[in-house]
Amino acid sequence: MIIGLTGGIGSGKSAAADRFAQAHGIHVVDADLKSRVVVEPGRPALGQIVDRFGDAILLDSGELDRAALREKVFAEPAERRWLEALLHPLIREEITSDLSRAESPYALLVSPLLVESGQHQMTQRILVVDVPEALQIARTAQRDQVPETQVRAIMQAQAQREERLRHAHDVISNDRDLAALHAQVDALHQRYLALTQGAHA
To answer: What is the pTM (predicted TM-score) of this model?
Structure first.
């Protein structure tokens, strides 16, 4: 069974995924990490991105300057669509290959764009880490040291909170401390184990 874990920027997806992995040994595939792998130097996708946007989006090391690229594509919806059309199929291949190696009773696919990218079609259940918008903005601005306006632009590109919750089978409410988050993850882990055993029964 593959469970999709999603939530807006700054919602605590990583903290929830870490708890599943470290406390319960669950195989976690992070779509964000896969999105970095497909644009590593030497990968064809990086060449196509440079052809389109120029060398200015490369760091001195030859790696992609993700901040510079983000600025370009969030300002220009047509460019974002071009980039997504290039990268989403490549990211999907990387995710599929990693999930196929999972040995835990179920696996987690962590993705901020689970709903928008169509990646939710690879999962049997969707778990949303939900947090009030004001808290989301405050946490992200502090964590990434970016202005609130940039956080809001990223949030605009992600599914709106209501849309995510509409797809959710399970919801973790992350408006309290880490212990409260862990308790919710632990309870869901038991529930998912019961579901996988039911599927095998």
So the answer is: 0.83
